[in-house]
Amino acid sequence: MSAPRSPRRARRGALRAIASLASLALLPPAGATPAALRAAIAAFTGGAEPREGGMRLEVPGLVENGNSVPVLVTVDSPMTEAAHVRRIAVFNEKNPQPQVAVFRLGPRSGTARVGTRMRMADSQRIVAVAELSDGSFRQHSVDVIVTLAACIETEGGG
Length: 158
Fold this sequence. Notes:
Blueprint: H1 7-26, H2 34-45, E1 51-52, E2 55-58, E3 62-65, E4 69-75, E5 85-92, E6 99-104, E7 113-118, E8 124-132, E9 137-148
Parallel strand pairs: 1-9, 3-9
Antiparallel strand pairs: 2-4, 4-7, 5-6, 5-8, 8-9
């Protein structure tokens, strides 16, 4: 039989385990990289390079609470049969799955304007990309600072 571990050794082992788990919590999720964001946008556009302009992404630049961040995307388009927006996608930089939402539109939509809410665990770049009926793509990005991250438990189980 082996001798029981001393309380001091057990405490050290527990502290090492806690420190290891805490360090893992500080690492970004696998796949949450700027390269993953670029790859997701390229998959949406079929490799076409989106042009800046012709649309607006409205997200608060400073967010106190990342649990419910409003996002509004508006694309300049007459929304006619000849010229309209087909799809609008919203991407974020620090999500393991960078594509947050895709909205499908057509000439009967009336306006090319969509909105949603998203959770943000950290400050990051948000990108909106629109596909137009002529096959071209537009994009607009916004850097958002989050002061109180979503997905973090607080005292009291909140």
